[in-house]
């Protein structure tokens, strides 16, 4: 039996197991630390949380009730790490459907 935590991402409630929550919390803190001094940093964080919420909803659509460490790791792999931001402020992501720029997260764009 595993302990679960209830979290709110982009106004959506998710049940996340304790291990997954720890990893997600560290990831979001790293992103926040990276963007906190950027102009529009809070907007970027809101957009990132919104995209994470969308990805979790997709996974819950498969009949799951709890987000596990596997789903959190999959989402992080799609979103990428803060250190993957290049000198132009572009965030190279593994997903072709998601691209983050300093000014705004843009969905549905192709990577160069």
Descriptive account of the structure:
With 112 residues, the chain is of the alpha+beta class. The protein contains 3 helices and 4 strands; from the N terminus they run ββαααββ. The strands form 2 sheets. Strands 1-2 form a two-stranded antiparallel ribbon. Strands 3-4 form a two-stranded antiparallel sheet. The termini are far apart.
- What string, H for helix and E for strand, traces the elements in order? EEHHHEE
Mean pLDDT: 80
Structural class computed from helices and strand pairing: alpha+beta
Say how many strands there are.
Answer: 4
Global morphology: globular
Q: What profile does the largest beta sheet have? A: 2 strands, antiparallel
How much of the sequence is in beta strands? 15-25%
Rg calculated over all Cα atoms: 14 Å
Number of helices: 3
Helix fraction, binned, reads 40-55%
Please state how the strands of the largest beta sheet are arranged side by side.
1-2
Distance between the termini: 45 Å
Q: Unreliable segments (pLDDT under 50, ≥5 consecutive)?
A: 93-112
Question: Main traits of this protein?
Answer:
112 residues; two-stranded antiparallel sheet; two-stranded antiparallel ribbon; 4 strands
In brief, what are we looking at here?
The protein is α+β, with helices and mostly antiparallel strands and 112 residues long.
Topology, please?
Layout: E1 4-9, E2 12-17, H1 18-35, H2 41-60, H3 69-79, E3 98-100, E4 105-107
Antiparallel strand pairs: 1-2, 3-4
Helix pairs in contact: 1-2, 1-3, 2-3
